[in-house]
Amino acid sequence: LAVVDEASDENRVVFYGIVLSDSKVYEGIRSQTVQLQRNLDPQSLCHKLIRVLICLQHLPEDSMRPRWKGKGLEAKALADPMSKIVSQLQSSLIQSNCHGLLSGCSVLLEVETTQTDLLNRACFGRPISTAEKDKQWFQLDMEEAFYLCYSLNCLKIVDEDKCTKSNEELWNDMKSKRETFPDFFKAYSHLRKKNWVVRSGSQYGVDFVAYRHHPALVHSEYAVLVLSGGDGDANGRLRVWSDFQCTLRLCGSVAKTLLVLNIYKNGNIADSPLCLETYSVEELTITRWSPEQCREDQKIVEDRTKDT
Amino acid sequence: MEVEDWSSSSGGTSDSEVCLQDLNDGEHCYTSGDIHKLQFRKDISKARWNDELGMAEIVDNKGRMWTTTGIVCRSKVYCSVEETLFLAEAGALHLLDDNDTLIPLKNIYKKVAEGKSGCCWESFEVYRHLKSLGYIVRRHGIPWTMEKSVKSKSVSLQGMPEINGVLDKESEDKNFIIDLFNNMKINELRPLFDVYPPNSKFKKSSPGNPSFVLCLPGGHPPSKPEIEDLERQCNGIPLKFCYVEYGRVSFFSFNKVELPILP
């Protein structure tokens, strides 16, 4: 029933993953720890574990269960992994030797139908409605464009004179348009590399929203804020109570967990994209706790354990 | 995926669902009738306030709440100001002065306002909120019992140094007391309460570990170094933070996570 992965010391068992039934696998439960009494006999240990498992089914806002938008969509997502879609997009863009045009804080891209499909399925960019029938135009955010360009190496970006920009030039251009670009890009690529879908979070007052797969299939789980670890947080969020309360409340009302990504530059100056390798990312969620709800859940646990 | 499909489901309005979790929060401030559901009125205890200690000494204890309230010392029970006020507000305790005159509620509120007994108004609001829901709450670092032969570590009685002085019948080092009070700045982030889940079988002799330690940040949300410092202090017991404003208490926690790598 439970996969107990590691006993970190005599009193604690840390759960890495728990299989409750065939279809439900809770990943990322590493943050849940259970304190056990010393010298617990196997039967008591078993009872305790059962109680924890029942409790986990009734986790309040800590629950990391993804909310799929319909029956069969979870299976559909499993059958069509995001990593594969992104990889197909990458190949397709390389093959057609795509060039994007940097304009303001966006990169405009002219693509064929196959690429339209792949860009949509991988969730990069927004389509621009035009009268042109045989070509499709897309608008990419700076992070999206730089990711395709620098991380996936499948896009070239040109300036108005059709000269291809080097990664360094692009980096500096984007940095000059937005001071927080290095931190934001690190956060974006950190999540994308794990195959999460990352979109702008501005409509929720946060920096990004992260989805487990395409937004048509699943609701986003995380509202993401990017903060600079160390001194001088240029993003300036969560510094005052009003912002803290506001952000947390907003996330709660749209059923997303607030995820803070602390970006540590580790003393490196952001003068070239190579410095990205030296940055580290710390993931932190901020969740509200409701003592009223917790008490109700506790009662459910107690009622259920009477049967076990 | 069609272009139309994408643009309508990119995380726009279809994503925003209102969760009713927070809508009822406002109600709790005003339904004070619920607080007194615990049938206190039949069992009214008596306690005498000790100004030197900043605590109340129970003279006559009635009712089941004493299993989760007060410190036991030499078979006497002492309550902190928040424990005293909570019970007095609920009508479960009559507080007396040295002349055995009943101290009115107004004067107990004054004691909290004076801030000399280690609990400010906001801390009391948090205490009351959790106690009313049945949680077991203890000021952080204060033991449940004190054995007479053991000289208590001064660290464990942070906030109530006078106990050491009076009960051990030794005068406490004045410099130590001054330091202790100087360190309790209002805006400093420190552990406030140890919170245990509601438990009818709770025993002061073996309370177990608290579910979490509650901290009350001051003028600004806690910073990362502050949180890390507290985590170190609390030795693996989970931390929660609370924020009190205009009579509303909210709780939250910071959790280190690692998002899984998806297929």
Key terms:
heterodimer, A: 308 residues, alpha+beta, Trna Endonuclease, Chain: A, domain 1, five-stranded mixed β-sheet, 9 helices, 35% helix, disordered N terminus, B: 263 residues, alpha/beta, six-stranded mixed β-sheet, 24% helix
Explain what the structure shows:
The complex is a heterodimer of chains A (308) and B (263). Chain A is α+β, with helices and mostly antiparallel strands and 308 residues long. Chain A has helices spanning 42-57, 73-79, 82-95, 113-122, 142-151, 167-177, 181-193, 241-253, 291-305; strands at residues 3-9, 12-19, 25-26, 33-35, 99-103, 106-111, 126-128, 136-141, 156-158, 197-200, 208-211, 222-228, 257-264, 280-289. Chain A has one domain (73-293): Trna Endonuclease, Chain: A, domain 1 (3-Layer(aba) Sandwich). Chain A has a five-stranded mixed sheet with strand order 7-8-6-5-9. In chain A, strands 10-11-12-13-14 form a five-stranded mixed sheet. In chain A, strands 1, 2, 3 and 4 form a four-stranded antiparallel sheet that branches. In chain A, strand 7 (126-128) and strand 8 (136-141) form a beta hairpin. In chain A, helix 1 (42-57) packs across helix 9. The two termini of chain B are 20 Å apart. Chain B has a domain at 45-147 and 179-252: Trna Endonuclease, Chain: A, domain 1 (3-Layer(aba) Sandwich). Chain B contains seven helices and eleven strands. Chain B is an alpha/beta fold. At the A-B interface, helix 4, strand 11, helix 8, strand 14 and helix 9 of A face helix 1, strand 10 and strand 11 of B. Strand 14 (280-289) of chain A pairs antiparallel with strand 11 (248-256) of chain B, so a sheet runs across the interface. Chain A: Keywords: Endonuclease, Hydrolase, Lyase, Nuclease.
